[in-house]
Amino acid sequence: MNVSSVMNSALSGMHTQTNKVSAIASNVASISTPGYRRIDLDRLPADEGQSVDPATELTGLIQAEQSFKANAVVFETGADIWELLMSIKRD
């Protein structure tokens, strides 16, 4: 696996977590809407959503935050390695 594919993989992970946070925000915003079924990006689209539970949403938000941070660290490390390789190439 090369540096570019590692960075692309980390970027994809950050996009995924951003989508999860958007779904959580929608769930929380609609918490008191009668008949609203929560959006769960980890479930199959055919599965029926459950009602919104604030504790579940908070847990999901924490997981998304930690996953985003981990992917950001991988991306930054890849960028550092890329910069190092470019400096070696210039010398």
Helix content: over 70%
Sheet having the most strands: none
Give the overall average pLDDT.
90
Q: In DSSP terms, counting alpha (H) and pi (I) runs of 4 or more, how many helices?
A: 2
Gross geometry: elongated
Distance between the termini: 25 Å
Are there runs of 5+ residues with pLDDT below 50, and where?
none
Protein structure class: mainly alpha
Count of strand segments: 0
One letter per element, helices H and strands E, the order comes to HH
Number of domains: 1
Q: What Rg, in angstroms, do the CA atoms define?
A: 18 Å
| Percent in strands | under 5%
Main attributes of the structure:
2 helices; 91 residues; 0% strand; 70% helix; mainly alpha; single chain
Can you tell me about this structure?
With 91 residues, this protein is mostly helical. It has one domain (3-90). It is 70% helix and 0% strand. It is built from 2 helices and no strands. Helix 1 (3-29) packs antiparallel against helix 2.
